[in-house]
Amino acid sequence: MKNELYFYDIFPKAVPAGREISVRIRSLSPHTAFTLEEYVLRVYPMTYDIYSETRPPVFETAVRPEQGELSFSHAFPGEQEHSVRIYTREGVCLARLAVYSLQPDLMERRPFMGDFHVHSCCSDGKEAPEFVAAIYREYGFDFMAVTDHLRRRPSLRAVDCYRPLNLDFQIYPGEEVHTYGNNVHIINFAGDFSVNEEARQIDNNIFDWEYPPRKEWEEQARALAAELKDLPEGVDPFVHASCLLALKRIREAGGLGIFCHPHWIADVYNVPDAFTRFYLEKGFADAFELIGGQTGLENQMQIAMYQEMLAKGARIPVVSSSDSHGTVNSICFNQMKTMVFARENTREELISAVREGYTAALDDKGPEDVQMYSSYRMVSYGLFLYHNYFPLHDALCREEGRLMRAWLGGDSVAEEQLAALKGQTVRMMEKYFSEQ
């Protein structure tokens, strides 16, 4: 976390572009207290030319501390980050803080961190669904879904387990859909029913990769495949038909259908390139898992194809998911994740935001090596939030996740302690992002 976040609090952090807004700066330590009679405050717009003869003027004002705070009003121009700097009258810079000005469509949204693709020991993961969920909150996630192979019911275990606690953290149902005879993997995020159970004869007491197909599903897929004409070379009609049926049923369940890791190498690439290009070009899925819990080689192949398809005019909503098979001392957990800019942390709003492209896909190897992929707007704002908001947000989540694990382990006091923490992340969000 940046030093400034320990020493100062500036709020709000996001402001409406071009409208005069009041901003407050509070000292968080005696050694950074505002003890001088007056300070000089300057605001530098980060994307504007402040060096040439035609440069816009840098905003500057003298401010006097009141009740330990500095405050000023300013109409922050454009959609961009602004460096807010505090100086002594002698010109010594004491702090460099940051504010981001937004256009209305982003101003009305809030940033939520989530993972759409997670496994538990109910398929080929290592830990119980309930335990996995607690660890996710401990690491700062606002939402997640357990998406075990071929099974939705493990995700309901996690949802039902924490339902009595009424947490701000949202746990959604999910599953990784594998229709018979089809190697393409599709995430059913937050759907109301299981597509796997429609497509295969699932025994929820025993996990088996070879659950047989259901006759009705097989017949529908074969009939649809026979109707598909003029497919690109390399696109198998039956595989395409099975995917279309699965995606259709996910949407009918109110869920989000995510096309997963086509360049994952099991033996060869999981999905032929011709099929992947076809799906990205036509937008059959609701979103593309651009980065997943794979090697750098596999993820780079997906990124390269994504960028190539964008250059050709394709519109591709993207997410990043860990495909985590374990959270304790795991490599991919908390590295691949998605920042979603949604109006609320609800199924409907999250799904709508993803479909409309209000996401940033993260490959988070640490503050000095975080990579984000999306439009320039989403990446620019996302990087600002990554460095200036989420470290503070994550610090609040850490104790909630620890108490969730304690409650799961039988701690009788943990429920009361969790109740006392309820709403803290919501209040922080309103403090930093609400229009004044």
How would you portray this structure in words?
The mean pLDDT is 96. The chain has a 6-stranded mixed β-sheet, sandwiched between helices. It has a 5-stranded mixed β-sheet with strand order 2-8-7-4-5. Helix 3 packs antiparallel against helix 12, helix 6 crosses helix 7 and helix 12 (390-408) runs antiparallel to helix 13 (414-421). The protein is built from 14 helices and 19 strands. The protein starts with a helix and ends with a helix. Helix content is 34%, strand content 24%. By secondary structure, the protein is of the alpha/beta class.
Q: Level of helix content?
A: 25-40%
N/C terminus separation: 27 Å
- Strand count, sense and closure of the main sheet? 6 strands, mixed
Spatial strand arrangement across the major sheet: 11-10-9-17-18-19
Q: Structural class, please?
A: alpha/beta
How many β-strands, per DSSP? 19
Low-confidence stretches: none
Question: How many DSSP helices?
Answer: 14
Percent in strands? 15-25%
Envelope shape: globular
Average pLDDT figure: 96
Gyration radius, to the nearest Å? 24 Å
Oligomer: single chain
Annotation keywords:
5-stranded mixed β-sheet; 14 helices; 19 strands; 436 residues; alpha/beta; 6-stranded mixed β-sheet
Question: Strands, helices and their partners?
Answer:
Blueprint: H1 3-7, E1 8-11, E2 14-16, E3 20-27, E4 39-45, E5 59-63, E6 69-75, E7 80-87, E8 93-102, H2 104-107, E9 110-118, H3 129-138, E10 143-146, H4 153-162, E11 170-172, E12 174-177, E13 186-189, H5 195-199, H6 215-227, H7 237-252, E14 256-259, H8 273-282, E15 287-291, H9 296-311, E16 318-320, E17 336-342, H10 347-355, E18 359-364, E19 370-373, H11 376-388, H12 390-408, H13 414-421, H14 424-433
Parallel strand pairs: 2-8, 9-10, 10-11, 14-15, 15-16
Antiparallel strand pairs: 1-3, 3-6, 4-5, 4-7, 7-8, 9-17, 12-13, 13-14, 17-18, 18-19
